[in-house]
Amino acid sequence: MTTSFWRDRHVFITGATGFLGSWLTKALVDNGARVTILYRDIVPQSLLARSGYLEKVNIVRGALEDYPTIERALGEYEIDTVFHVGAQAIVEIANRNPLSTFETNIKGTWNVLEACRRTPTIKRIIIASSDKAYGIHDILPYNEEAPLQGRFPYDASKSAADLLAQSYFHTYKLPVAITRCGNFFGGGDLNFNRVVPGTIRSLLYNESPIIRSNGKFRRDYLYIEDAAHAYLTLAENMDNQKIHGHAFNFSTENPITVLEMVGAIITTIGSNQRPTILNAAQHEIPDQYLSAVKAKTVLGWQPRYAFDEAIKKTVDWYRDFLHG
To answer: Quick check: pTM over 0.85?
Structure first.
């Protein structure tokens, strides 16, 4: 990350109070950016609120479905750079409530893209897609040329949002780039139905952690500070117009099973608990992992934290959070 690049740059972030958005906002504020966020729900326990950084940004009250508010914010705050990371990101909720997921993830994305198209100060737009956008493929790891064929509600919403971003580049030459990442983990994730925070909370309460699947699903796990660094690195490279319209996978290229992730957390905490395996997960893809060759060669990006170090930092964060 280049500090001088962000100094006094006007940045707009959707999803800023979420897991990734909080870390991204903190990093930008620390490096001198003038950050404006779209703020829908008051979440007092969010990392952004607890850390005091909510007091350091401009707040525009509204939702992704509210197009006039987004366009007004981009214009009035003379936004230069947009990070669209806001989404309904929980697979189980998407399966229960597909219409609200489509409203947020698909309509929300076209609202951001159209508002950017109509705002002349915009120079770079980062759109958050996902490894889920690829859907099911026989050949792994996914590279960026693999077709987008999400089948289940969350996966389909990310495929659609990804394609919309590409459409706005090819039709209007909008300065867009797309991120596709695996599962994030780290301090600040308050969705305790996810495997990492849920496992840590159970173990710190001396309870058996719950695994909804059979534990054999293989995934990428990317530490949240490395993820934030990936987004910033991509944005900093967008003065190179040759990467406009491109998607980039970000991954450690070291996929592990859910059982392996839970085992690593158990070892780090030093617990004697063993997981309870429900084998009840539905509408999830068994194996998903990414090639990050393009990000490493084109952008010069590398993860900065070893897996064991990242797990320890994550456990320490939740120990402070839950016992504080």
So the answer is: yes
Structure tokens at 54: 């909510």
Tell me the average pLDDT of the chain.
Answer: 95
Are 191 and 19 a contacting pair, CB within 8 Å?
A: yes
What residues does each domain of the chain span? 3-188+222-253+288-305
Per-residue pLDDT tens digits for 25-79? 999 999 999 999 999 888 888 899 999 999 999 999 999 999 999 999 999 999 9
Question: Are the C-beta atoms of residues 98 and 106 closer than 8 Å to each other?
Answer: no
Position 1 scores a pLDDT of: 60
Cβ atoms of residues 283 and 214 within 8 Å: no
Mean pLDDT confidence for 155-168 = 97
229 in Cβ contact with 179 (< 8 Å)? no
Q: Between 153-172 and 108-117, two packed helices, what is the crossing angle to 10 degrees?
A: 10
If you ran DSSP here, which 8-state letter would residue 134 be given?
G
Question: How many whole angstroms separate alpha carbon 138 and alpha carbon 208?
Answer: 34
3-188+222-253+288-305: CATH topology is Rossmann fold (3.40.50)
> What is the distance in angstroms between the CA of the first residue and the CA of the last residue of the chain?
31
Which residues are catalytic, by number? 154
- Can you list the alpha helix ranges (DSSP code H) found in the chain? 3-6, 19-30, 47-50, 67-76, 91-96, 98-102, 108-117, 153-172, 195-204, 224-236, 258-269, 293-294, 307-323
